[in-house]
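tool_call: predict_structure(chain=1)
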Amino acid sequence: MAFENIIGNEKIKAILTSAVSDQNILHSYLFVGIEGIGKSLFAKEFAKMILCMENENKPCKKCKSCIEYASSNHPDFMLIQPEDGKNIKIEQIRYLQEKIAEKPVTSSKKVYIIDEAQTMTREAANCLLKTLEEPPEYAVLILLTSNESKLLTTIKSRCIKIYFMPIANEQVVNYLKQNKLDANITNAMIKESEGSIGRIIKILEEKEKYIQIEEIINKLQTQNITKVWLESEVLYKSKENIIPLLEYMIVVLYENLKKEDKISYANGINIIEEAKQRILSNANYDMTIDNMLLKLWEELF
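tool_result:
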């Protein structure tokens, strides 16, 4: 059964399954959703279904196409990702164009997934546009993006957009329980994941940092500011990855606000937002954290 091991977005499963069964597969799709929501899993499963050589119950997992796909050796499939972790370059798109001009080898279709499509350089995007305008009859292109606004309007207009919705908190919790990952998970951590399995997994990988953030919030309400500064090492040492931690502080304060309607929590959220903007504007990092903690302490102590 298609998509059987993928959580959430049942409507999208139905739409893609119907497209394959009705032989109504379009030339270009744009999957839009936050990082970790499952766009890549859906795209790969969709590609497997499109390439499957059986007439029913795609993917069959038994035909030559499914076996080649499972072994990452399918001649009619290509996954394009940022080459250096930052950008998809024009050379990658030119290579795609060379391969897409060749007729399918195993299947009746060829499928190309472009992950993190918003990272294409302008030259790469303009180059891809030519293929989107006149794709070969057998070609299917699936673009994935977590930031639709960074894509050229001309590219977006040539793709059928499919928007991925956040997974319900209950489903995230069930996933964690089924995989025995729910130890020490707080409501704030679930909230921070924004309905993304990928995000909750990343949070779990750095769970100690997130626990320390919650401890800092508690210390702001019980300890003097000097001790707070000394025991907030996680903030001072996370310069390269501070924004997710500050956003988590906001989530923790928001959860507190829901339990206890105090204006100090709302003011604290504004203080952290201000610190975020200062850091994004390249203000002095340590001084920004110092001032943020001092202002939070004045509000919460």
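agent: The mean pLDDT is 94. Proceeding to next step.
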